[in-house]
Amino acid sequence: MALTFLFCAIGGIAIGYFFVPVFRPNPVSAASATLNSNVRGWAWADTIGWISLSDQNTGSGVGTYGVNLDFSSGELTGFGLSEKAGWICFGSSCSVSECGGSVPASNRPYDVPYAAVVPSPYATGSLARNVHGWAKVCEQGDSGWISLNCSDPLPSVCGAYPYRVPFDMSTRQFTDTPAPGSPNNGTSFAWNGDSDGSGIGYVDFHLAYVQAAGESLPSAKNGF
Predict the structure, then answer these.
(1) Which of 174, 194, 206, 222 could bond 199 through an S-S bridge, CB–CB 3.0 to 4.6 Å?
(2) Cα(158)–Cα(142) distance, integer angstroms
(3) Alpha carbon 208 to chain centroid distance?
(4) Region at 43 (left for phi over 0; alpha for psi -120 to 50; beta for the rest)
């Protein structure tokens, strides 16, 4: 099914309650592809609940998995895990056979499985950057693509709804410097929607962050 982006006004994101999920094991061969992942924390979608972005999170479940931000290239790769939806791949990691498929019509370079912080963390410029590209719920086939920035689909859907996932270089969090926003202003939100009105909907990344080597940052997911 072709992926279509549907936008509507909503009252807000449901409040997330703390719990320790028990993830089912999954034999997908790509799960251990990012052994040195540096992204920690969680994403949240009303429809599928918590998405663990690292096996280092408390309550992350079994197995070896994680998402990595390459500070040189800016690329995001690897796998998150949802108790309800299974594996969520990021960027070029979605090219493996268990997750493969064709991204929706997109502006280059996002017309292939690719995700990145732009400009890359090592590049000079503003501390406020944005994630571009795609993640995917592997078990949902081509209905599972998650757009990380409204400017990437072709044509751009930012006029209808300006969602995006920012990256703050000063805090290394996937959110703006101000307090986390709401779907009404696009702060820290990605989107998945199908032409029949189904889909995951908004995915909130404001509890995700990059942990530098030797650091211990909070990974609690009850901050909504």
Answers:
(1) 194
(2) 22
(3) 9
(4) beta
What's at 140, amino acid-wise?
Q
Q: Is the pTM of this model over 0.85?
A: no
C-alpha to C-alpha distance for 105 and 114, rounded to whole angstroms:
13
Q: Determine the Cα angle at 120 with ends 32 and 208, to 5°.
A: 55
Going by the DSSP 8-state scheme, the letter that residue 212 receives in this structure is P
CA distances from 47 to 16, 33, 97, 218 (A): 12, 27, 25, 25
The span from the first CA to the last CA of the chain, in angstroms, equals 33
Task: Please write the tens of the pLDDT for every residue from 13-68.
Answer: 332 333 334 444 443 544 454 557 899 999 999 999 999 999 989 888 777 899 99
| Separation between Cα atoms, residue 140 and residue 179, nearest integer Å | 32
Please report the pLDDT score of residue 152 as a whole number: 96
Report the C-alpha gap between 173 and 28 in whole angstroms.
28
Q: What contacts 2, CB < 8 A, 6 or more positions away? A: 104, 142, 195
Other C-beta atoms lying within 10 Å of the C-beta of residue 41: 27
Residue 194 DSSP label: B
**Cα angle, residue 42 at apex, residues 150 and 53 outer, rounded to 5°:** 90
Residue 118's identity, in one-letter code, is V
Which comes out higher in pLDDT, residue 197 or 146?
146
